[in-house]
Design brief:
The chain has 81 residues and is mostly helical. It is 59% helix and 0% strand. It has one domain.
Length: 81
């Protein structure tokens, strides 16, 4: 996921690259910063994922954090699973 985000930022920065280019790797710090900022879901995100029951909201909030943490622990060499 980190690689996917880095490549997207690279493309949005109007930086042309081919799949064999490593230029996107320059955007890895930016990708990590974006993903870390997304780690905490907003209330509307939690509400969209869970019924109004507070206990279930907590479960969805924790699950979301765990998914972002897992994505942050991936290295571009690992790829996505």
């Amino acid at each position: 996921m980190v690689e996917r985000v880095a490549r997207a930022i690279c493309v949005s920065d109007c930086t042309p690259f081919t799949p064999s280019d490593d230029y996107w790797k320059l955007y890895l710090p930016h990708a990590l910063a974006v993903m870390k900022a997304m780690r905490e879901p907003t209330e509307s995100m939690v509400a969209a994922a869970a019924p109004a029951h507070d206990g279930e909201r907590l479960i969805h909030r924790v699950a979301y954090r765990l998914m972002i943490d897992a994505a942050l622990s991936e290295t571009p060499e690992m790829g996505e699973r």
